C-alpha cells in the first residue's frame, strides 16, 4: 500500500479535520515518516500572512527532501492560496474543506487536480480514534458569522453552521467506549453552535454529560456575547473543566470598535468576575499592535488587563492578513513596539497564573498525555500543565495530584504507590 503523511498547521479544528481524513483512508497506509511517504497532505492554516509563509516554506522544504512524493494542499490555505500554488506547480493537488471525506478517491488521481469544493458542507464522519492523543477533539460546528476586521476565516470556512446533534453524540459515545474521557469541543466559532438547529451549547453539554465514560468536557473558545444564563448554570457541574477560554481580543473599547468586535470591556469585566467567583481559571486571546493602537490606548488596555481575573492568554502580535479590512488601516504599529507590548502583557498574565497556581495545589485532576523515564506531564482541570515523577506508567491515566510544588515555569509533583 502507498503511504500517506499528514502535516497539520494551525488550530484544533484542523487537527480534527486531519483525523477525519485519516479515518477515510481505505487503500493507503498512514506513516509518520515524511521522507518515505508517497503522498504528503498539508492541512494548512491561513489566519495570517505568516501562516501562509510557514505553509509555503514547508512545501518547498519537503519537495527538496522527498521529491518523489505528491504534495496535496488541504485546509484553509487551499481557499486563499491554493490556486496560485497549484498554477505555479508547487503542489500536485488542491482539495477544499468539503472534499476531505473523499480523500481516498482524491489520492487516486493520476493527473494534477484542483478540487476546491464549496463552503457549505458539513461532515458526517464519525471519528472513533485519535491517533497519538489522550484527549479527543470534537468538532461541533463550522464557519463564522462574525466580521472582525482582522480576520479572513469566514472567507475560507464559510458561514456558521452546526453539526447534527446525533452525529456529535454518537461520536462521543464511540470515543468514550474506546477509552477517551476528556472531550474538547472545537469549531470555527464554537459558541454559535445550535443557532441554526433551534438548540444551544448548554443543551448539547447536558446531553454529552449523560454519556457513560465522559469525565471532563472542555470548550475550545467562546465569544463573550455567547455566554448566557443557560450556560452559566452549568459551571458548577463536576464534568465541566474548570477553565474557560473567552476571546476578548482587546480591552480598549476604541480598539474593540476598530476591530469590529461585539464585546465591551465593562460587560467583559462583569462576566469574568462572575465566572471567576465560581472557581474558574480564565484565558483569552489578545491581539497586540493592531493598527490604531497608540500609546494612550495601550496604557488603558494594560490597566484594564490588570483588573481582569485572567490566568492564561494567547497573545500574538498583529500580523497583516491580505484581503481583510485591517490590512488597509493606518497607522501601523512598528514591530519592535508590538514585541515590547506583547512582553508586557504576557508578563502580567504569567504573574496572575502563578498566583492562581499557588492557591490551587491540591485535588488536581490530571489526565497524563505523555512521558517516559519516570517523568510524565498532563493538564489539570484548570488547564495548567503539571510534570510528575512516578514509578508507574501514567500515560493516558487520570490521577488526583496533591502537594504540588509551584514554580515559575510550571507545577511539579511526585506520585509513588
Global morphology:
globular
Number of alpha- plus pi-helical segments: 13
Give the full name of the CATH homologous superfamily of the largest domain: tm_1862 like domain
How many separate domains?
Answer: 3
Distance from N terminus to C terminus (CA atoms, Å) equals 45 Å
CATH C-level class of the largest domain: Alpha Beta
CATH architecture of the largest domain: Alpha-Beta Horseshoe
Strand arrangement, largest sheet? 2-1-3-4-5-6
- Beta-strand content bin: 15-25%
Rg over CA atoms: 22 Å
Q: Give the uncertain stretches in residue-range form.
A: none
- CATH fold descriptor of the largest domain: pyruvate-formate lyase- activating enzyme
How confident overall, as mean pLDDT?
A: 95
Structural class, judged by helices and strands? Answer: alpha/beta
How would you characterize the largest beta sheet? 6 strands, parallel
Helix content: 25-40%
Task: Work out the number of β strands.
Answer: 20
Amino acid at each position: 500500500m502507498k503511504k500517506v503523511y499528514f502535516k497539520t498547521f494551525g488550530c484544533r479544528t484542523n487537527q480534527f479535520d486531519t483525523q477525519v481524513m485519516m479515518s477515510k483512508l481505505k487503500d493507503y497506509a498512514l506513516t509518520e515518516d515524511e521522507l518515505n511517504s508517497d503522498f504528503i497532505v498539508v492541512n494548512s492554516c491561513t489566519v495570517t500572512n505568516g501562516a501562509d509563509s510557514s505553509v509555503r516554506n514547508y512545501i518547498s522544504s519537503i519537495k527538496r527532501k522527498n521529491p518523489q512524493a505528491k504534495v496535496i494542499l488541504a485546509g484553509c490555505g487551499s481557499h486563499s492560496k491554493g490556486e496560485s500554488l497549484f498554477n505555479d506547480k508547487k503542489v500536485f493537488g488542491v482539495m477544499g474543506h468539503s472534499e476531505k471525506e473523499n480523500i481516498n478517491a482524491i489520492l487516486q488521481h493520476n493527473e494534477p487536480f484542483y478540487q476546491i469544493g464549496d463552503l457549505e458542507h458539513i461532515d458526517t464522519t464519525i471519528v472513533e480514534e485519535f491517533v497519538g492523543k489522550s484527549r479527543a477533539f470534537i468538532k461541533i460546528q463550522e464557519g463564522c458569522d462574525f466580521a472582525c476586521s482582522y480576520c479572513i476565516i469566514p472567507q475560507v470556512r464559510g458561514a456558521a453552521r452546526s453539526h447534527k446533534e446525533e452525529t456529535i453524540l454518537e461520536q462521543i459515545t464511540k470515543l468514550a467506549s474506546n477509552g477517551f474521557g476528556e472531550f474538547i469541543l472545537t469549531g470555527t466559532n464554537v459558541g454559535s453552535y445550535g443557532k441554526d438547529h433551534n438548540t444551544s451549547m448548554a443543551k448539547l453539554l447536558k446531553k454529552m454529560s449523560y454519556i457513560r465514560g465522559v469525565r471532563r468536557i472542555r470548550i475550545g473558545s467562546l465569544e463573550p456575547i455567547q455566554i448566557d444564563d443557560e450556560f452559566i448554570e452549568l459551571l458548577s457541574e463536576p464534568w465541566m473543566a474548570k477553565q474557560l477560554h473567552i476571546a476578548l481580543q482587546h480591552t480598549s473599547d476604541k480598539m474593540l470598535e476598530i476591530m469590529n468586535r461585539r464585546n465591551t470591556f465593562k460587560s467583559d469585566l462583569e462576566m469574568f468576575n462572575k465566572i471567576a467567583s465560581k472557581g474558574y481559571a480564565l484565558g483569552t486571546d489578545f491581539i497586540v499592535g493592531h493598527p490604531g493602537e497608540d500609546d494612550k490606548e495601550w496604557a488603558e488596555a494594560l490597566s484594564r488587563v490588570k483588573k481582569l481575573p485572567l490566568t492564561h492568554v494567547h497573545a500574538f502580535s498583529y500580523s497583516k492578513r491580505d484581503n481583510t479590512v485591517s490590512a488597509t488601516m493606518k497607522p501601523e504599529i512598528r514591530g519592535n513596539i508590538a514585541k515590547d507590548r506583547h512582553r508586557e502583557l504576557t508578563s502580567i498574565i504569567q504573574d496572575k497564573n502563578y498566583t492562581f497556581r499557588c492557591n490551587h495545589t491540591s485535588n488536581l485532576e490530571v489526565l497524563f498525555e505523555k512521558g517516559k523515564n519516570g517523568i510524565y506531564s498532563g493538564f489539570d482541570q484548570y488547564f495548567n500543565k503539571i510534570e510528575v515523577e512516578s514509578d508507574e506508567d501514567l500515560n493516558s491515566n487520570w490521577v488526583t495530584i496533591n502537594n504540588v510544588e509551584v514554580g515559575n515555569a510550571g507545577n511539579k509533583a511526585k506520585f509513588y504507590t
